Amino acid sequence: MQTRTVFIAHLLSLCAATVACAQSEHAKKIAASFIGTPFETYAKDILVNKPDYVVFAPKKNKRVTGDTYNDHFQVFSKPDGMLFAVWTQATKEADIDQHIAFSKSTDQGLTWSEPVVLAGSKNYTNPQLLASWQQPMVSKSGRIYVLWNQQVTSRGPHCGNMFGIYSDNNGEIWSAPKMVPMKRMDRDPQDPATPPSWCNWQRPLRLGQDGRYLVGVSRHGQAPYDTKSGCTVEFLQFNNIDDNPNVDAIRLSWFASNEKALKVEHPKFGSACEEAGIVKLPDGRLFALMRTCAGHPFWSQSRDDGVTWSTPKELLDRDGGTPYLHPRSPCPIYDWKGPEAASGTYFALVHKTFDFDGKNEYQARGPLYLIAGKFNPKAEQPIEFAPAKLFAERPSGNSFYASSTVVGGKTVLWFPDKKFYLLGRIIGSEWFDGLKQETE
To answer: What 3-state class would DSSP assign to 166?
Structure first.
């Protein structure tokens, strides 16, 4: 059943002042639909970060489905234009009903099907082990794979094995879940019965060797040669998705692993380099942007399709090469022309603030700023950025575990607002005006 597809005109007029800040008539109508319902507070709050699309707003009935935590929001598409969304959902983060939710849209994101639970507990009634951090992929034949981190012990939401399912009919029917064999790494627990601690926060993209799916993996733990426990980035390539394998026959290749994993250390805040987002440069290089514990985002590049990576460096702005300030918070980067376009024009999101006198690196996730970037093949940092522009104005709660697709020729950033609403916002040419002026 499609949700929120019928809107009453007089409700829109009742809340015209409330929704004046919305970018699109579609978002205004959705906001208006909450007037006179138990969710009337959504009518104003849902528009704060100026969405053009509303994919999901919680119903707040944990007896049916725990749905007030919505995160790791991955939207993807098929060549026919159908859109799909998968995300991690629960009553609250890491609660006993944390599960994988799935929805789809047949009208380019205007309406979305009621979410269904693909793995994990839908509510408190029959708690199961947590399912988290899903990663969708579509084979060339159109088969949809959804893999995730499946908790198999009680050791927290990142400690788990890789499980998955697939569908050959756009998510109407799914295969039985199976486990994908994962290679043990130096940072994994010594007890082979204890799963590794890992998270893929972006969806895999066709950026690997010969167009294979590639993704950055956050690995938690301490290798024998590490001075302290922390988090590093490795890269995972899915080698045979286009052969439509059974889930337990998916073949993996690991790059930049173990001693070659990407690492950033800070004398006060420890060791953490994680949550890599990857874009492709026009000359074929890959560029990864990562959050760290060091008060700045760091970047690395690969010249061989993601097999080997350079030593991470601080992300610099165009004002004298000053490092961007940023807490241990998501700092996503996307290609403006499409996830795998190698267009040379990019955008990233940063907080522009960090207190080095603070107690730790987990600091307020306040306003987010969009920085438009342009490929410069002669620069040491191959993407140069224009001055930052305010994008998300909430004073807190801007934790963008996001994704990006092209819808109707326009790039859309899909993001979880406050880890509560699931929204989409068009990234138009106005965000790149400063970039054009600087690079002319």
So the answer is: strand
pLDDT-based confidence at residue 26 (cuts at 50, 70, 90)? confident
* Distance from C-alpha of 270 to C-alpha of 117, rounded to nearest angstrom: 37
Which residue, 90, 165, 162, is CA-closest to 128? 90
Q: What's the pLDDT at 436? A: 58
At CA 339, angle to CA 106 and CA 181, rounded to 5?
90
pLDDT one-digit tens code per residue, 270-323: 999 999 999 999 999 999 999 999 999 999 999 999 999 999 999 999 877 899
List, in order, residues 6 or more apart from 17 with CB less than 8 Å away: none
Domain ranges of the chain: 1-47, 48-439
CA 362 to chain centre: 18
pLDDT per position as a tens digit, 110-131: 999 999 999 999 998 888 999 9
Phi, psi of 122, deg, nearest 5:
-75, -20
Q: Would you say the C-alpha torsion 29, 34, 36, 40 has a positive or negative sign?
A: negative
Which residues sit opposite 213 in a β-bridge? Answer: 238
Which residue do the tokens 């609660």 mark?
A: 95
pLDDT digits (tens, 9 = 90+) for 41-52: 999 999 999 999
Q: Are 425 and 23 in contact (CB under 8 A)?
A: yes
Assigned CATH topology for domain 48-439: Neuraminidase (2.120.10)
pLDDT-wise least confident of 26-35, 49-58, 341-350, 368-377: 26-35
Q: Which phi and psi (to 5°) does residue 237 adopt?
A: -110, 135
Answer for the pair 51, 25: CB distance below 8 angstroms, yes or no: no
Residue 341 phi, psi (nearest 5): -75, -25
The answer to whether 381 and 316 are in contact (CB under 8 A) is: yes
Count H helices, E strands: the chain? 4, 29
Q: 325: closest CA among 300, 361, 359?
A: 361
- Residue 10: pLDDT band (50, 70, 90) is very low
Nearby residues of 190 by Cβ (< 8 Å), 6 or more positions away: none
The CA-CA-CA angle for residues 432, 435, 440, to 5°, reads 125
Q: Tens digits of per-residue pLDDT, 176-190?
A: 999 999 999 999 999
Tokens 């995300």 sit at which residue? 87
